[in-house]
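Notes, p. 3: input format for complexes.
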Amino acid sequence: MRKFIIDTDTGSDDAVALAMGLKEQSIELLGITTVSGNCELDQATDNALMVVEHSERTVSVYKGCRYPLLKDKRINAVNVHGNDGMGDLGLIHPNTKAKNKHAVDFIIEMVSKFPNEIEIAIIGPATNIALAIMKEPEIMSKVKQFFIMGTSGFALGNASTMAEFNVYADAESYVPLLRSSVPKTIIGFDVCIENTFEEEDIKRLYEKSNLGKFLVDCNSTLIQYNHKRMGCKLLDIPDALALAVALWKDEIVIESKDVYAECCYKEDKTYGLVILNDNTDVLAVKHQYPSNNAEVVTKINRNKFIEKVIELV
Ligand code: BDR
Ligand code: CA
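Output follows (313 residues plus calcium ion):
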């Protein structure tokens, strides 16, 4: 059976992804690791614990990094997901606690116990993963696969003109991540925003089960945010799409590209931009990039994605 770890800054779209990982019977979810991002670490951890309870599973949660690797300032996305990251409806009151082991040590321990077997879905800033790579590079080279929700893909960013939130929150962490020899599949923000739940899909998810209702409630701030911006009730759930790619790649990915991905972190204006060089522009000056280091998903079967999520919860 496939073995997974989900590394998350548990905001409301992470909640959907976690529920999917917890409910999918064909995988073994070894643990959930948390990191600061959408909200600060303790809140992200409580949110993850709450999703585990609502999913009626017993999977352990491990707290990871409170701050980005080098940046002295944390950013968050409370304007999108709510102050508690989960819609500010008072839904978060977990009965359980995180394990007494650091997320980075848990990840290293699992990879060392199951070399070349563990697949890691990174759906928040990559701080924990970067630190694990820096701490135990040899062991971490034996991760089987990284699925990464991060980068703006081939479009503009959502955190700055250039950068997507998860990268912008800790761009330095993308340096060891992208340098690692482990196969990587990137789900950028561009495909996520093209494959949203529409009003009818949200209604179906809500009515499907108690878990479905909880997940829609968690996303209420995000739905309102989209309504204000675009005049319609849409739900973009990037982390759920990333997890769908991880779980059901052959069924939902229609197209992807191999690229050499490189993260800019030195200049303020381009901080968090990930250049995805696919060498297709015949007019461009060709840089001597090393060989491709990632696959980027460019086209999704939206209906399949939506059906599979609703079916699962
Ligand atoms: C990413 O940033 C967060 O707001 C979401 O949880 C997702 O991981 C999208 O840019
Ligand atoms: Ca996230």
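The chain has 14 helices and nine strands.
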